[in-house]
Specification:
239 residues, 36% helix, binds zinc ion, alpha/beta
């Protein structure tokens, strides 16, 4: 299947936390959206690989995602060598997404920065006909979503309309994220704390406030963005 958008994350739940509202928004407007998890989350403190796969599938269904894929780049020591590049190039050439949403160049979890470099390299090399056997293809744009470390956004997507859908997708990750009223006998982690859940909401409200929205998801672009119609940038749309 040809995809319009492919969101790529290091671990199951990264993409949903970073840009779940945006993915739901794009899916609702009829675009074909896919999610690629670069690892199976096998090094996680909580949850098994099978559990996380089931959770990822349920989360993708909530967001209206058409395709979900996993690579095995190594959770906790994410590999970025030629083998992993080839695997990702294969995925990009198979799905031919126009837009890639991926991790930032550096973040608290080192796997995220490594994944950024892998995504940037594979997105470029996929366009070279000298690299591998399959037909070359290069995505038109690669943007980064926010995870732990804040950055100055290149743009913010108003996700107020799909905020509840995002929270529903996050609720699918019962092994990873705190759910009000639930109890699990597993070691506490920062991500599984009630404070983390509150911070997810608070951060979206913070970035939403900056653009006059209830909830916002910030993105970073390495390159400046071209604007065909500056009038379309007026808050609330053209008058
Ligand atoms: Zn992660």
């Amino acid at each position: 299947m040809k995809l319009d958008v492919l969101a790529i994350g290091s671990h199951p739940d990264d993409v949903e936390l970073g840009c779940g509202g945006t993915l739901a928004l794009l899916a609702q407007r009829g675009l074909k959206v896919g999610i690629l998890h670069l690892t199976r989350g096998e090094a996680g403190t909580r949850g098994t690989v099978e559990e996380r796969r089931t959770e990822a599938q349920a989360a993708a269904t909530s967001l209206g995602v058409a395709e979900i894929e996993f690579l095995d780049c190594g959770d906790g020591a994410l590999r970025t060598g030629p083998e992993e590049e080839d695997a990702l190039i294969g995925v990009l050439r198979r799905f031919r997404p126009d837009l890639i949403l991926g991790p930032t160049p550096s973040d608290r979890h080192p796997d995220h920065g490594r994944a950024h470099r892998l995504v940037a390299a594979a997105s470029y090399y996929a366009g070279l006909k000298g690299r591998g056997e399959s037909a070359p293809y290069r995505p038109a744009a690669v943007f980064s979503y926010m995870q732990h470390d804040p950055f100055e956004p290149s743009f913010i997507v108003d996700v107020s309309a799909t905020w509840e859908v995002k929270m529903e997708a996050l609720a699918a990750y019962a092994s990873q994220l705190h759910q009000p009223g639930s109890r699990r006998d597993e070691p506490p982690t920062k991500v599984a704390s009630p404070e983390f859940r509150a911070a997810v909401v608070g951060r979206a409200q913070h970035y939403g406030l900056l653009v006059g929205a209830a909830y916002g998801e910030p993105f970073w672009s390495r390159l400046p963005l071209a604007v065909a119609d500056p009038w379309a940038l007026l808050p609330g749309g053209p008058r």
